Amino acid sequence: MLTQQQVQPVGDALARAVYHAQTQAPVLRWLLSDDAPVSDHLTTTHTRWWVHEWRYSAKLAPRVHHHPAERAAVGERSWTFYRDLLAYQQAPTEAERARLADAFDALVDKETGYAALDDRISKTADKRTQLLAVLKHPDLPRHKNDMELAARRRVRKRDVSFGPQSRDGARAWDTFQTLAATAAKLGVGFFPYLRDRIVTPETTPIVAERVVQRTSIVVPSSA
User: Fold this and answer.
1) Distances in Å between the alpha carbon of 113 and those of 67, 69, 117, 118, 119?
2) What is the average pLDDT across 136-149?
3) Rounded to two decimals, what is the model's pTM?
4) What phi and psi, each to the nearest 5 degrees, are found at residue 105?
5) Residue pLDDT, tens place only, 196-217
6) What distance in Å separates the CA atoms of residue 31 and residue 47, rounded to the nearest whole number?
7) Is residue 30 exposed (0-12), middle (13-18) or buried (19+ Cβ within 10 Å)?
């Protein structure tokens, strides 16, 4: 039998296992900085971020006089393709989906003669499924700025207060920071919301109910 101290770590591990095992919806995972491979069942459902792909090429340090021009040309083609992807997200069509898939193949099929750049292009080609996940799921986010900002808030609080001192404290952090972030996304003042939930809980909907209202999710009856 697990002790009270063991329950939370085991629960966290099980939650991560479920997260990695699910395949019903596209899971968002940003590009690993070392291009580490991801297992097959994950690569079919994960998306990667185009902005990071070009950052790797931009960090190259060409030595031959014509290589900077080759790198710039690849960058221009990449950003043109990325802008086309953004336009596709606003008005997706089957014809444009097919065109963009072919355009990607043409983009990564070119050899520049600059070995380091060609290696980066080859790595981009290997991520075709993830980079083109947006063609099947146009509602995928274009970047991970929101997630990075959310994580940064937690880091700033940790730096200021030296972190939670107990499991209960960590759960309190998670609860209230999640509430605050969600309320902000809904355009709801966090402190007025807390006041109303304390003073008039019977007439103040919880954050989850507000999310349901905003997204028009149909919640099945418990009956």
Assistant:
1) 8, 12, 8, 7, 10
2) 69
3) 0.53
4) -60, -40
5) 989 998 888 888 888 887 766 5
6) 9
7) middle
